[in-house]
Design goal:
Radius of gyration: 25 Å
Helix content: over 70%
Strand content: under 5%
Structural class: mainly alpha
Shape: elongated
Distance between the termini: 29 Å
Order of helices and strands: HHHHHHHHHHH
Oligomer: single chain
Number of helices: 11
Length: 294
């Protein structure tokens, strides 16, 4: 075999591997669609009142409920309010609450998981039993009971979900910390006399953060559904608020007059939750691939 032939033979598999590498590294159409939906929802949450075609709270009792038209693309509800505008503005409560839940649960779970995994002993036992106890509780049912008895509305529900969802982060971070604790870099830091607090937050935390970030996306998706369910039951946002769960509740008797009063918030809710799940899976795969030899 000549040198040129050998070079060509070796170049072929190399080109194949590079193409395979590019395919693995590229974004699938599903992920692209999910990212576009998530970006659109975030834009609506930030600038909803500015981009909505009508005032979401403006009532037109003379018009009342009506189907889609050139002026109201998705029609109006029983009070004459524009359904499209209310769906756009409703993205704010669909993003703010779940974002607070995801960040709060991640911070609590990271703190408890790191301390339990690194310290071990009695602290690990106490944190693990606490996480097991709260994790065993049906989060949505507990939220319904507590918010229904205590009252307080939307942000009380958000605070309660932070506590109820944090055990998942605690268990994940604790497991990852147990793996990292035995690594050589941790032993080297101990021998060098670095304080435990610095080892935990400056060395261990960056190495367990990827899995915590990926799980935060899933917590966000679960929180969207949970908060919408509470609003549907009248335990979340107040009456008249542009919120997807509340809109679903208010439109139960309007389906035969204008089905979009229920379809618009329902589709928005399903697409947002599913898209965040897809993006979370993609983020986890990307973060898990860091440092792998391909």
């Amino acid at each position: 075999m000549t040198a040129s032939a050998a070079t060509g033979a070796s170049a072929g598999p190399r080109r194949f591997l590079l193409r395979g590498h590019a395919v693995r590294r590229g974004l699938s159409p599903l992920v692209v669609a999910a990212l576009l939906i998530v970006v659109a929802v975030i834009v609506c949450a930030i600038a909803g009142p500015a981009i909505a075609p009508h005032d979401p709270n403006a009532q037109d009792l003379a018009t009342g409920i009506s189907g889609p038209s050139s002026e109201h693309w998705l029609g109006t509800d029983d009070l004459g309010r524009d359904v499209l505008s209310r769906t756009i503005v409703g993205a704010r409560t669909a993003v703010v609450g779940p974002l607070l839940v995801a960040l709060g649960a991640m911070l609590i779970g990271n703190l408890l998981g790191l301390l339990a995994g690194y310290r071990g002993g009695t602290l690990d036992t106490l944190v693990s039993r606490y996480a097991d106890l709260v994790y065993a509780l049906p989060a949505l049912l507990v939220a319904i009971v507590v918010v229904g008895v205590v009252g307080g509305g939307y942000f009380v529900a958000v605070a309660l979900l932070v506590v109820l969802y944090s055990p998942v982060d605690t268990r994940l971070v604790r497991s990852a910390t147990l793996v990292q604790r035995s690594q050589p870099y941790v032993e080297a830091a101990r021998v060098s006399g670095i304080p435990s607090r610095r080892i935990i937050f400056a060395h261990l935390w960056p190495n367990v953060l990827p899995i915590a970030v990926a799980n935060a996306f899933l917590t966000f998706a679960f929180s969207i559904v949970s908060l919408a369910a509470l609003s549907f039951l009248g335990l979340g946002v107040g009456p008249g608020t542009a919120d997807w769960g509340r809109m679903l509740s208010d439109s139960r008797t309007l389906l035969f007059d204008n089905e979009w009063t229920a379809l618009a918030p329902g589709i928005a809710l399903v697409l947002t939750a599913a898209s965040v799940n897809v993006v979370g899976d993609w983020v986890f795969e990307r973060l898990s691939d860091r440092g792998r030899v391909r």
